[in-house]
């Protein structure tokens, strides 16, 4: 109950108490007044009647006495009139039962007891006692008058109370309105949203509360900003190249290994290896400052090319080497983009050197297929770079891809996806402290190749992207998953959505409407890659709100590696995050990884977000995760993905 309602209840209780006391006092006072009125009425009647009946009483004329008493009694205000002679012998007695109007409730009669007094008047005639007259007025009159007064008082009390409550309610809400703002501030603060009240109330106590709350909001915001800044500094120091801002050698190799050797979901593409010919000579020609500017230009041009890939791997692997893993498979497009890169870098170099000398860098390009390992791919790219150096050419392409059978494979993948001929595998996410307890199972899409053998996502995902069938694939996966959830109500499944599906509002609406058919919508978990979240923050935020209203859980996959940081968590506020496997792979051997993961977990828990770790393979990793208070783990330590 709100404080306004509590105050109104208290005010109403006080009003009821005051009204009850007022009615009681008024009733008691009115009762006493009416009793006195009945006494006066009886006494007056006895006096007047005695004066009139004195000679008849002395003469013993009972007929005249009876006639007179009946005439007076019939007025209806008397309960009994009794006339006795001087010897107290009855001359005439007229009485009736105590009649009370039906308008007076029975409970009121029992609650208020009124006993009219019997009034007496001695009658004398010629200085001798002729007898006595006894008169008792009727109590019904008093009850009727007392009830009418009480009823009117109660009606007016109700009317005035309602008017008072309305007025007091409006007044209370106006006075206490700043407290509603304080409540909104507190709720927003729990979600890391910082709201300050601009309207400061005039009431001294409320003013101090609002000012104190505003100050606390500013301090908490400063604290979390400093925490995020500190973690970002840790990330830069551990995983980012100081000069270019790209991933450093350790982070680049770790991400390359994660995408190619473990996740194997990149699809076909190319690894671009850019190397400066002679860094020492470059420093001598340009000077250190200009040489650094040229190195930054190399990083910028590669980053520009990386924007054509949804989830690229880009980094500086040595002081003179850069790599970029791109999903561009079209040779003509790749050649066009690399020629553009060479032209831009040539212009930058010539501007810095003020000459038309040959640009001192070489580019090697190696094709990536699902059979390649990260080490093999890097060796091929370096060999291509060395070949470019030997031939004194800017770019050398080392086996840009085998196009034999490519058309038939594209047709095969297209037919499978369009017809929904896929099957699902799943891998459990388990609690760190209880490996028997599964949090949910993450779903992976698979198809059969032309030999009817299961193939990994990396073997067909690039074709699906080229054919713009990612949304169709996601729709098929969700249909299969929801069908399975309907069959098994105790199952909880997590499904990853692609960047294309997130951008498709019709797809999102379809997902919400379809998922609501589940008896328990919380059985379904929707996951989106961190890069997709950052690239589509507004759409994801709206989509997240729709999922929350529908009761569907939402998570961010591959968390913690994007250079843009994690401040988006305050806006999106997912139910859980999955820390990227590249940060987990050497967790048990690297203090820097442990420190950074602990920082990520701390931030997530401060926002009431669960933190899970991906690609856990060893017990030592699991032990380290337990010490870091990670909530759950997923990986081959619990087995390879199995068919759902």
UniProtKB/TrEMBL annotation:
Gene3D superfamilies for the chain: 3.30.110.200, 3.30.70.270, EAL domain (3.20.20.450), LapD/MoxY periplasmic domain (6.20.270.20)
Domain (EAL): residue spans on this chain: 405-643
Domain GGDEF: 227-397
Highest taxon, organism lineage: Bacteria
CDD domains attached to this UniProt entry: EAL (cd01948)
Keyword list, A-Z: Membrane, Transmembrane, Transmembrane helix
Protein name per UniProt: EAL domain-containing protein
Residues making up the signal peptide according to the UniProt record: none
Membrane-spanning intervals of the chain: 6-26, 154-176
SMART domains the UniProt entry points to: EAL, GGDEF
